[in-house]
Amino acid sequence: MWPLLLAAVLGLSPVPALARMPAVDSVVADGLYVDPDGQAARYVRNLERSGRDDEAAIMRKIADQPAAIWFTDARAGFADRARTVVARANKAGKLPVLALYFIPGRDCRGYSAGGARTARAYRNWVSSIAGALRGRRALVILEPDAAADSVGGCLNEKDTATRLALLAYAVDTLRAHPGVAVYLDAGHPGWHSAARIAPALRRAGATRARGFSLNVANFQTTDANLRYGVELSRLLAGKHFVVDTSRNGNGPAPGQSWCNPPGRLLGQAPTLRTGQALTDGYLWIKRPGESDGACGKGAPVAGQWYPAYARSLTGS
Protein backbone atom coordinates (compact mmCIF):
# COMPACT_ATOMS: atom_id res chain seq x y z
CA MET A 1 0.00 0.00 0.00
CA TRP A 2 2.73 2.48 0.96
CA PRO A 3 4.58 2.32 -2.40
CA LEU A 4 1.31 3.32 -4.07
CA LEU A 5 0.90 6.24 -1.65
CA LEU A 6 4.49 7.37 -2.13
CA ALA A 7 4.05 7.19 -5.89
CA ALA A 8 0.87 9.24 -5.69
CA VAL A 9 2.47 11.93 -3.52
CA LEU A 10 5.46 12.22 -5.82
CA GLY A 11 3.39 12.14 -8.99
CA LEU A 12 4.68 8.79 -10.20
CA SER A 13 2.77 6.01 -11.91
CA PRO A 14 1.68 3.49 -9.26
CA VAL A 15 3.36 0.09 -9.36
CA PRO A 16 2.30 -3.16 -7.70
CA ALA A 17 4.32 -4.53 -4.80
CA LEU A 18 6.58 -7.48 -5.54
CA ALA A 19 7.21 -10.35 -3.18
CA ARG A 20 10.74 -10.86 -4.51
CA MET A 21 13.47 -8.47 -5.57
CA PRO A 22 15.00 -8.38 -9.06
CA ALA A 23 18.54 -9.57 -9.59
CA VAL A 24 21.20 -6.88 -9.50
CA ASP A 25 21.84 -7.03 -13.23
CA SER A 26 18.15 -6.75 -14.06
CA VAL A 27 17.57 -3.12 -14.95
CA VAL A 28 14.33 -2.63 -13.04
CA ALA A 29 14.28 0.87 -11.59
CA ASP A 30 10.62 1.76 -10.96
CA GLY A 31 11.09 5.16 -12.54
CA LEU A 32 14.18 6.06 -10.51
CA TYR A 33 16.57 8.37 -12.33
CA VAL A 34 19.87 7.09 -13.74
CA ASP A 35 22.47 9.86 -13.74
CA PRO A 36 24.19 9.97 -17.17
CA ASP A 37 26.94 12.18 -15.73
CA GLY A 38 27.93 9.90 -12.87
CA GLN A 39 31.48 8.61 -12.58
CA ALA A 40 30.41 5.06 -13.40
CA ALA A 41 28.68 6.18 -16.59
CA ARG A 42 31.66 8.27 -17.67
CA TYR A 43 34.01 5.37 -17.00
CA VAL A 44 31.89 3.04 -19.15
CA ARG A 45 31.88 5.53 -22.01
CA ASN A 46 35.68 5.76 -21.82
CA LEU A 47 35.95 1.97 -21.90
CA GLU A 48 33.71 1.78 -24.94
CA ARG A 49 35.68 4.48 -26.74
CA SER A 50 38.81 2.42 -26.05
CA GLY A 51 37.20 -0.71 -27.49
CA ARG A 52 37.13 -2.45 -24.11
CA ASP A 53 33.58 -3.69 -24.57
CA ASP A 54 33.85 -6.71 -22.28
CA GLU A 55 35.01 -4.55 -19.39
CA ALA A 56 32.33 -1.98 -20.18
CA ALA A 57 29.66 -4.68 -20.01
CA ILE A 58 30.81 -5.61 -16.51
CA MET A 59 30.80 -2.00 -15.33
CA ARG A 60 27.33 -1.45 -16.75
CA LYS A 61 26.08 -3.54 -13.82
CA ILE A 62 26.80 -0.38 -11.86
CA ALA A 63 26.44 2.41 -14.43
CA ASP A 64 22.99 1.37 -15.66
CA GLN A 65 21.44 1.40 -12.20
CA PRO A 66 19.96 4.50 -10.56
CA ALA A 67 22.09 5.81 -7.71
CA ALA A 68 21.90 8.87 -5.51
CA ILE A 69 23.38 12.14 -6.68
CA TRP A 70 25.40 13.70 -3.88
CA PHE A 71 25.62 17.34 -2.88
CA THR A 72 28.60 17.83 -0.59
CA ASP A 73 29.84 21.41 -0.89
CA ALA A 74 28.89 25.00 -1.62
CA ARG A 75 30.92 25.55 -4.75
CA ALA A 76 29.42 28.09 -7.10
CA GLY A 77 26.47 26.64 -8.99
CA PHE A 78 25.49 23.91 -6.51
CA ALA A 79 21.84 25.01 -6.44
CA ASP A 80 21.73 25.31 -10.22
CA ARG A 81 23.11 21.78 -10.44
CA ALA A 82 20.33 20.51 -8.17
CA ARG A 83 17.73 22.37 -10.21
CA THR A 84 19.07 20.98 -13.49
CA VAL A 85 19.29 17.38 -12.25
CA VAL A 86 15.77 17.35 -10.85
CA ALA A 87 14.24 19.14 -13.84
CA ARG A 88 15.94 16.70 -16.21
CA ALA A 89 14.76 13.70 -14.23
CA ASN A 90 11.18 14.92 -13.88
CA LYS A 91 10.97 15.80 -17.56
CA ALA A 92 11.84 12.18 -18.29
CA GLY A 93 9.18 11.02 -15.83
CA LYS A 94 11.83 9.82 -13.38
CA LEU A 95 12.40 10.32 -9.67
CA PRO A 96 15.91 11.47 -8.68
CA VAL A 97 17.48 10.49 -5.38
CA LEU A 98 19.61 13.25 -3.86
CA ALA A 99 21.95 12.81 -0.89
CA LEU A 100 22.72 15.99 1.05
CA TYR A 101 26.02 15.80 2.95
CA PHE A 102 27.24 19.18 4.16
CA ILE A 103 26.49 19.37 7.89
CA PRO A 104 29.11 21.34 9.87
CA GLY A 105 31.75 19.06 11.35
CA ARG A 106 30.89 16.33 8.86
CA ASP A 107 32.47 12.92 9.51
CA CYS A 108 34.47 13.70 12.62
CA ARG A 109 36.27 10.38 12.04
CA GLY A 110 38.17 12.10 9.24
CA TYR A 111 37.82 10.29 5.90
CA SER A 112 35.13 12.63 4.55
CA ALA A 113 35.73 15.55 6.87
CA GLY A 114 34.36 18.91 5.88
CA GLY A 115 30.94 20.47 5.69
CA ALA A 116 29.67 24.00 6.13
CA ARG A 117 31.85 26.27 8.25
CA THR A 118 28.99 27.70 10.30
CA ALA A 119 25.40 26.92 11.22
CA ARG A 120 24.26 29.99 9.29
CA ALA A 121 26.12 28.85 6.17
CA TYR A 122 24.46 25.46 6.42
CA ARG A 123 20.97 26.91 6.78
CA ASN A 124 21.58 29.10 3.73
CA TRP A 125 22.85 26.08 1.79
CA VAL A 126 19.80 23.98 2.68
CA SER A 127 17.47 26.85 1.78
CA SER A 128 19.16 27.17 -1.61
CA ILE A 129 18.79 23.43 -2.29
CA ALA A 130 15.16 23.53 -1.19
CA GLY A 131 14.51 26.48 -3.49
CA ALA A 132 16.01 24.55 -6.39
CA LEU A 133 13.57 21.69 -5.73
CA ARG A 134 10.47 23.87 -5.57
CA GLY A 135 7.73 22.53 -7.82
CA ARG A 136 9.72 19.35 -8.57
CA ARG A 137 9.71 15.75 -7.36
CA ALA A 138 12.70 14.29 -5.56
CA LEU A 139 13.63 11.82 -2.86
CA VAL A 140 16.18 13.32 -0.47
CA ILE A 141 18.52 11.43 1.85
CA LEU A 142 19.44 13.90 4.54
CA GLU A 143 22.95 13.92 6.01
CA PRO A 144 24.31 10.36 6.22
CA ASP A 145 25.81 9.60 9.65
CA ALA A 146 25.00 13.04 11.09
CA ALA A 147 22.45 11.96 13.69
CA ALA A 148 24.29 8.73 14.51
CA ASP A 149 27.58 10.60 15.00
CA SER A 150 25.86 12.83 17.54
CA VAL A 151 25.17 9.84 19.80
CA GLY A 152 28.20 9.04 21.92
CA GLY A 153 30.47 10.23 19.13
CA CYS A 154 32.95 13.03 18.66
CA LEU A 155 30.68 16.01 19.36
CA ASN A 156 30.37 17.84 22.65
CA GLU A 157 26.99 18.70 24.14
CA LYS A 158 26.78 22.13 22.55
CA ASP A 159 27.78 20.91 19.09
CA THR A 160 25.35 18.02 19.39
CA ALA A 161 22.47 20.38 20.14
CA THR A 162 23.46 22.59 17.20
CA ARG A 163 23.69 19.64 14.85
CA LEU A 164 20.29 18.22 15.78
CA ALA A 165 18.70 21.67 15.45
CA LEU A 166 20.25 22.07 11.99
CA LEU A 167 18.92 18.68 10.91
CA ALA A 168 15.46 19.65 12.12
CA TYR A 169 15.73 22.91 10.16
CA ALA A 170 16.70 20.96 7.04
CA VAL A 171 13.80 18.52 7.47
CA ASP A 172 11.28 21.32 7.81
CA THR A 173 12.72 23.42 4.99
CA LEU A 174 12.81 20.57 2.49
CA ARG A 175 9.47 19.00 3.43
CA ALA A 176 7.75 22.35 2.86
CA HIS A 177 7.74 21.39 -0.84
CA PRO A 178 5.05 18.73 -1.43
CA GLY A 179 6.98 16.84 -4.10
CA VAL A 180 10.05 16.32 -1.90
CA ALA A 181 10.22 13.16 0.22
CA VAL A 182 12.80 13.59 3.00
CA TYR A 183 14.48 10.64 4.73
CA LEU A 184 16.68 11.57 7.67
CA ASP A 185 19.64 9.24 7.97
CA ALA A 186 19.61 6.91 10.99
CA GLY A 187 22.84 4.95 10.66
CA HIS A 188 22.65 1.15 10.53
CA PRO A 189 21.98 -1.86 12.77
CA GLY A 190 25.68 -2.44 13.46
CA TRP A 191 26.10 0.99 15.07
CA HIS A 192 23.59 2.13 17.74
CA SER A 193 20.63 0.29 19.17
CA ALA A 194 17.26 1.64 18.07
CA ALA A 195 16.49 2.75 21.60
CA ARG A 196 19.73 4.70 21.82
CA ILE A 197 19.45 6.65 18.57
CA ALA A 198 15.69 7.28 18.56
CA PRO A 199 15.80 10.30 20.94
CA ALA A 200 18.40 12.05 18.76
CA LEU A 201 16.35 11.34 15.64
CA ARG A 202 13.25 12.78 17.25
CA ARG A 203 15.16 15.95 18.16
CA ALA A 204 16.40 16.10 14.57
CA GLY A 205 12.88 16.11 13.15
CA ALA A 206 12.55 12.48 12.08
CA THR A 207 8.87 12.31 12.97
CA ARG A 208 8.21 15.23 10.62
CA ALA A 209 10.21 13.76 7.75
CA ARG A 210 8.75 11.23 5.32
CA GLY A 211 10.93 8.69 7.10
CA PHE A 212 14.53 7.64 7.70
CA SER A 213 17.35 6.00 5.76
CA LEU A 214 19.52 3.06 6.81
CA ASN A 215 22.84 1.49 5.85
CA VAL A 216 24.19 4.39 3.78
CA ALA A 217 27.71 3.45 2.61
CA ASN A 218 27.61 0.39 4.85
CA PHE A 219 27.34 -3.34 4.27
CA GLN A 220 24.76 -4.66 6.75
CA THR A 221 22.42 -7.22 5.21
CA THR A 222 18.99 -6.20 3.98
CA ASP A 223 17.33 -8.55 6.48
CA ALA A 224 19.24 -6.97 9.38
CA ASN A 225 18.20 -3.50 8.20
CA LEU A 226 14.58 -4.53 7.86
CA ARG A 227 14.49 -5.83 11.44
CA TYR A 228 16.24 -2.71 12.71
CA GLY A 229 14.03 -0.41 10.67
CA VAL A 230 10.84 -1.95 12.02
CA GLU A 231 12.15 -1.62 15.58
CA LEU A 232 13.17 1.99 15.03
CA SER A 233 9.88 2.81 13.31
CA ARG A 234 8.00 1.82 16.45
CA LEU A 235 9.96 4.50 18.33
CA LEU A 236 9.40 7.13 15.63
CA ALA A 237 5.62 7.24 15.30
CA GLY A 238 5.50 4.50 12.69
CA LYS A 239 7.74 6.25 10.16
CA HIS A 240 8.74 4.40 7.01
CA PHE A 241 12.31 3.92 5.81
CA VAL A 242 14.60 3.20 2.87
CA VAL A 243 17.65 0.92 2.85
CA ASP A 244 20.92 1.38 0.99
CA THR A 245 21.56 -1.95 -0.72
CA SER A 246 24.35 -0.75 -2.98
CA ARG A 247 27.12 -2.91 -1.51
CA ASN A 248 25.48 -5.32 0.94
CA GLY A 249 25.24 -8.36 -1.32
CA ASN A 250 27.76 -10.26 0.81
CA GLY A 251 26.99 -8.67 4.13
CA PRO A 252 29.47 -6.84 6.37
CA ALA A 253 33.18 -7.50 6.28
CA PRO A 254 34.94 -9.29 9.14
CA GLY A 255 35.50 -6.87 11.99
CA GLN A 256 32.84 -4.55 10.55
CA SER A 257 35.45 -2.85 8.37
CA TRP A 258 33.73 -0.05 6.44
CA CYS A 259 36.44 1.56 4.28
CA ASN A 260 36.63 -0.24 0.92
CA PRO A 261 36.57 -3.69 2.56
CA PRO A 262 37.40 -6.54 0.15
CA GLY A 263 34.99 -9.30 -0.73
CA ARG A 264 31.84 -7.17 -0.78
CA LEU A 265 29.24 -7.40 -3.57
CA LEU A 266 26.52 -5.30 -5.12
CA GLY A 267 23.20 -5.73 -3.35
CA GLN A 268 19.60 -5.73 -4.48
CA ALA A 269 18.74 -3.50 -7.41
CA PRO A 270 17.22 -0.11 -6.62
CA THR A 271 13.45 -0.26 -6.44
CA LEU A 272 10.44 1.34 -4.77
CA ARG A 273 8.66 -2.02 -4.85
CA THR A 274 9.88 -3.79 -1.74
CA GLY A 275 6.88 -5.86 -0.70
CA GLN A 276 7.53 -4.65 2.85
CA ALA A 277 4.89 -2.60 4.66
CA LEU A 278 7.28 -0.08 6.21
CA THR A 279 10.03 -0.09 3.59
CA ASP A 280 9.59 2.51 0.88
CA GLY A 281 12.61 1.54 -1.18
CA TYR A 282 15.86 -0.29 -1.65
CA LEU A 283 18.19 2.35 -3.02
CA TRP A 284 21.80 2.69 -4.09
CA ILE A 285 22.61 5.73 -1.97
CA LYS A 286 26.34 5.18 -1.76
CA ARG A 287 27.45 5.13 -5.39
CA PRO A 288 29.15 1.74 -5.91
CA GLY A 289 32.70 2.03 -7.18
CA GLU A 290 33.38 5.37 -5.53
CA SER A 291 35.98 5.11 -2.79
CA ASP A 292 35.22 5.31 0.94
CA GLY A 293 38.59 6.95 1.50
CA ALA A 294 42.33 6.56 1.02
CA CYS A 295 42.46 3.71 3.50
CA GLY A 296 44.28 1.01 1.56
CA LYS A 297 46.84 0.40 -1.15
CA GLY A 298 45.73 2.16 -4.31
CA ALA A 299 42.52 3.53 -2.79
CA PRO A 300 41.81 7.15 -3.78
CA VAL A 301 40.27 9.77 -1.51
CA ALA A 302 36.62 9.50 -0.56
CA GLY A 303 34.21 9.97 -3.44
CA GLN A 304 36.72 9.31 -6.23
CA TRP A 305 36.17 6.54 -8.76
CA TYR A 306 38.00 3.33 -7.79
CA PRO A 307 37.95 0.99 -10.83
CA ALA A 308 39.45 -2.07 -9.13
CA TYR A 309 36.97 -1.88 -6.28
CA ALA A 310 34.07 -1.29 -8.66
CA ARG A 311 34.97 -4.42 -10.59
CA SER A 312 35.25 -6.48 -7.40
CA LEU A 313 31.76 -5.40 -6.34
CA THR A 314 30.34 -6.98 -9.50
CA GLY A 315 31.88 -10.32 -8.57
CA SER A 316 33.90 -10.39 -11.80
Automatic annotation (TrEMBL):
Claim: Signal is one of the keywords in the record: yes
EC category name: hydrolase
Binding-site residues for substrate, renumbered to this chain: W70, H188, W191, N218, W258, K286, E290
Keywords attached to this entry: Carbohydrate metabolism, Cellulose degradation, Glycosidase, Hydrolase, Polysaccharide degradation, Signal
Annotated catalytic residues: D145 (proton donor), D292 (proton acceptor)
SUPFAM superfamilies documented for this protein: Glycosyl hydrolases family 6, cellulases (SSF51989)
Protein name, entry field: Glucanase
